[in-house]
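OP here, attaching both records as promised.
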Amino acid sequence: MMMDQASRLRELVSRNAAKNVTRSMEANNTRILAVASGKGGVGKSNLVVNLAVALAQQGKKVVVFDADLGMANIDILMGIVPRCNLYDVLYGRKELKEVVVKGPEGIEVIPGGSGIQELANLSPERQEKLLNALQQLAAGADYLLIDTGAGISRVVVAFLGAAQEVIIVATPEPTSLTDAYGLIKILAKYGDHANIKTVINRVTNRRDGENTGEKLRMTALRFLNLELETLGYIREDKYLVKAVKEQEPLLLKYPYAGASEDIQILAGRLLQMKIDKPMGVQKFFHRLQRLFG
């Protein structure tokens, strides 16, 4: 009898150890992509939502972290209604798992809301507790997409500085390109940001998209000695506006629209881009905590 109990105990310990190893491996394989823009209104959140859908349709597990304090609208674009957000977690009203919302194609969404600003002001102990919870939630994901705010606030720069891959969204307008370059210039100071990608949104045609992306790439190379990766472009599309009004991702509502095709191409390029060693959620959240400190 005692031997049977001992055997079961050893088996249980062995299973738990195996689960911990699996979780650790999954956490280390997660690709972290923070999406940002130099100014608002360039379609950053729309890109995050539809890129998440495209990746999920390819069988990838995707978690979206809505870290845009000023214009948190991932939920609107996905047609979901979160009843609480990170703020409720910070003040003990909810557990993190209670605020996570299921989106289309199995995507999990972490609504940030006003809790994002508070995150930077927490004590180190509370920061660590929350970031550990976020880490456990995102550990099993293939991709963690972070929709940061526009501009260069302390919180935005912290998320971008902690991420292994950054996508900067801009439009062909001179003001948008200037603001995007300013954000890239700040990121270049971190030194270890070799993985900055650009997406040019609302272009009139293929040539417009390619020329604008190349112009931004050459400017960064000349003045910052920084090689950007041009991920691609998205054409102006009336169906995108309709999808926003109908509160449904473009790729699901109008999968054959021109902009849908462009986003599918972007997703395909992301899948093909191999990272030597994905950062994983553990290292990301440790870096984020250090930058908040």
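Record two, same layout:
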Amino acid sequence: MPDKIIPLIEAKKTSGKYVKLDPKGFFVIELDRQQIRVEYYSNVYRKKRIASGKLEKVFTGKKADALSDTIANHVPGLRPEHYCYLGREFQKAESALKNNKKYIQDGC
């Protein structure tokens, strides 16, 4: 039997206009007193559209991997790309914290 041909796929960033909002909610990430603070909001809908959010949980930590693992355990069912986005943002926030730099959360 011949070997299966494995495709080589070049990585490309998804344009913001193609990003789907997560029906589970959203996160606000900031640096707060020598730690990373992450607020999780569930979506509040009006007329079947996301109108705002309700604060559900607050996470704090200094390490991107610990925050990622903790949020995956406490906020299950997010879209996979949402977890990826959070991991990137936590890495940026951790780097800013270590280097005493300003951190600004990117949009989707």
